[in-house]
Amino acid sequence: MIKAVIFDMDGLLIDSEPFWRKAEQEAFSEVDIMLTDADCRETMGYRLNEVVELWYARHPWKGKTMEEVEERILSLVSKYILAEGKPMPGVTEVLAECQRRKLKIAIASSSPMSLIISVVKVLQMEGAFHALHSAQYEAFGKPHPAVFIATTKQLDVLPHQCLVLEDSFHGVVAALAAKMPVIAVPDSEMISDKRFNAATLTIKSLIDFDWNRLPKEITF
Description:
This protein has 8 helices and 6 strands. The chain has a 6-stranded parallel β-sheet with strand order 3-2-1-4-5-6, with helices on both faces. It is of the alpha/beta class.
């Protein structure tokens, strides 16, 4: 029986994936790496340091350290979120139903904790979550399950008692590796990606979350 719901953040709670793409493209262009939207989608769900390390390994640059590029991206994303951040459709309703059902609620994200806290404030959701956890504190990021397993410990529940909501394939893999049922909510340009068939259920939007029509693996 499900006792807790763990939410990814970027692209699921807040429409921030376009901000990440914009920030990555701008920051990497400053070291002469021109990323396409497809390039950015390749690393959805990764920790920021892993994104920077990947592109440095493929296209080593000079003039800035990897840490400086990370800081530049995070600064830009934070600026865009504070100025334009808004919740994804259906978020408010799903959170309200979780609270009505007295489920524990958490965020488990690849984003740094500073950004998680900023997003919660921007969305005016302070106090809505029982736990906030960032993969920055784990040895490995998604698709490794560490961030989800650590979050279950904060919630004091077992992995199989948690439902995960994720928008990235790497997040889906992480949830499944943690032995948790997972509902995938890919963005519109990824919904046809057959890799999401691995999820317990795939929906187009949180608006489509139907508590009365869930797979048998998800019971409350």
